[in-house]
Amino acid sequence: MAQLTLEQIQKKSLNRLVGLNPVFKLVMEKLIERCYARGVWIVITQGFRTYAEQDELYAQGRNGDKRPKVTKARGGYSNHNFGFAADFALLLRDGRTVSWDTLKDDDKDSLPDWSEVVEEAKKLGLEWGGDWRTFKDMPHLQMVFGLSTADFRAGKRPSQAQLNAVLSRLNKMSLEDEEMTAEEKAAFNALQKRVIALEAANKLTKVPAWAEQACINAKAAGVLDSANDGSFDFYRMVTMLDRAGVFKRGGVA
């Protein structure tokens, strides 16, 4: 299938963004955009839920329902009920299939796509459900500004100053993103991923026998903390420096 445009990716999440707090909605739109720039496609699978919809989800896996439990929250006890939470999934390259595989590397950059999404989410100030100590919720993202669901039920909402701080962060990130053209960003991201892949591929599982003494000498001289996980070129450089006498007493500047 041909490469989907950002606009095509964004359209797939439009319906799930309805009902979210306007500022939180902007954050989620920015997340989709920044993930796309990294070669990772995502869709929003859950956004705002009514209390009734939340209760229906809570009933799954309970009272004889044999399906797995998907939430521990009744209606009014989830941040989804107040428009400050959303769930995501990966969109695969066929443009139709979604995945919750947290180890999948669909963009082939030697990094799990899920981890890349979480990294971008945290840059935006989002809280990730995968960091929770109990009932980890891997697709869940939220921004609650220190408010509990009890606060939300009582009618409390983030202050305008808190919302403005988020808008300021988004604006700053947008300005930084615009410093490069879309083509330049794509090329830069591709280069970064290529470097990561090459570094991973070039690492040797152990120090080659011919470089062992050079590494020992380099560690004794205080130049190396560890000789593990180096590449062939790294070990060759250490050996050449050792043969040149750089690691002898007094030879290191």
Write out key terms for the chains shown.
alpha+beta, 5-stranded antiparallel sheet, disordered C terminus, 253 residues
What does this structure look like?
This protein is α+β, with helices and mostly antiparallel strands and 253 residues long. 44% of the residues lie in helices and 8% in strands. The chain is built from 10 helices and 5 strands; from the N terminus they run αααβαββαββααααα. It has helices spanning 6-11, 14-17, 22-37, 51-59, 113-123, 149-153, 160-177, 182-202, 212-220, 232-243; strands spanning 42-46, 85-91, 98-99, 127-128, 140-142. Strands 1, 2, 3, 4 and 5 form a 5-stranded antiparallel β-sheet that branches. A hairpin with a 6-residue loop joins strand 2 and strand 3 (98-99). The chain is elongated. The N and C termini lie far apart (57 Å). Mean pLDDT is 87; it is low at 249-253.
- Residues in β-strands, percent: 5-15%
- Through-space gap between termini: 57 Å
Q: What pattern of helices and strands is seen along the backbone? A: HHHEHEEHEEHHHHH
Structural class designation = alpha+beta
Radius of gyration: 24 Å
- How many beta-strand segments? 5
